[in-house]
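Changelog note: in this version the structure field was regenerated for every chain. One regenerated record is shown below for reference.
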Amino acid sequence: MLKIMKVSMLMSVVSLAFSHAVYADINADLQNICTIVKADDKDELRKKMKKVESDHKLKLQDYYSGISCSGESLIRTALLNNAVESGTLMIKKMPKNQLSSPESDGKTLSDWVAEKGLTGSPIALELNARI
């Protein structure tokens, strides 16, 4: 019985240490994603998303809400920087229901776009066509 408890405690410690390493790796992998979006580098963004998907089994929808670029989401950052290629790629990769749900400030992307006067943007047009 004591041996089982020792093994179980050891496994808990090892799995905790491993899970911390996984989070550290994904943070490192996503470190410069804001810069990539702002630069409108669609190819580099696609590579970054594929790397995260292959290494961590996560799709854009899984980590989208956890990333903030100067207080804005990735798609909002693309809109503010007129990063059409990156913005449309992300809109195509996100599920429709997530695109129409409120973000961290309680506003949907469509409401935020209208509030900022960006309804004529190609990214906003892609968003409206998708939802």
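Spot check on this record: Residues 12-24 have pLDDT under 50 and may be disordered. DSSP finds nine helices and no strands in the chain.
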